[in-house]
Amino acid sequence: MKLSVENQVAQTSVNKIERIHKPTLEEFKYATLSYRQPVIVTGKIAEWKAFSLWSIDYLNKVVGNKEINVNISKNKIFTFDPETEDTFPSTKMQFTEFTDWINQEKKDEQYYYLQQQPIEISFPELFPDVEIPNYLNKNFFMIANLWIGTGGNTTPLHWDAARNLLSQVRGRKKILLFEPKQAAFLYPFPAHSKTPHMSYLNIDKPDFDKFPKFQKAKYIECLLEPGEMLFIPAFWWHHVYSLDRVNIAVNFWWQADWKDYFAPQARRILVHNPKQGWDIFKNLVGKFLTKNR
């Protein structure tokens, strides 16, 4: 990614992402400015069974020949088509067939990525190997997702309307993070589209003639090592590169709270879709009442 000097990390309001070792809940809230700023947690994943057990051989033994759904890409970029907004294509295969493909390190005409699979539903046999972190309110917990792929896979620039703990079990990930206020420079899909959380930008080969405002964007980069968790606040833009031959991660989503919806892209969508805004409001109120009974 080549941006002008004015856009480098030193110019962001968050100069670097702090690493904190096995923080308490209060320490986590303090480090994240009450869930508004990214932070990397070390030491917690080492307590998981997954951290010591999840080799390819172990996964094959436990999961076996279960049929799974994997996404497909011809260039290792797994995204939505900006013209048609169609989701990435997918195919079904046996789990061991998928892991054999990973082990063989083939340079095929197409690449596979097991993305965003709810562990408790799709891989209940693996769910006991992970622990849901206690850093966010359990009443707002949404889901834990499994990601398995190879080095070179890229999840392009997007945001999630949820608080996210990206937990790296095997391999490393490089993540570029943009604060919500950078949305004006990041060319999101239309608010009324099926994928308003995605960006038109190709960060690795930016077309500044077509997207000139991107030159003003400011970002922060971090390298997530095995055994580390990255907290990504709701509505923060992130672009994720998987590194190393075997790459396994689990991400946890918690519902955003009402303060998170002051983010520019959230307001933009709610203005264009009032019904969605009302549904979100009712859901948040319901969660709040449940929490305070």
From TrEMBL:
Residues 121-271 form the JmjC domain. Signal peptide: none annotated. SMART domains: JmjC (SM00558). SUPFAM superfamilies: Clavaminate synthase-like. It comes from the Bacteria. InterPro entries: Cupin_8, JmjC_dom. This is JmjC domain-containing protein. It comes from Tolypothrix bouteillei VB521301. The lineage of its organism: Bacteria, Bacillati, Cyanobacteriota, Cyanophyceae, Nostocales.
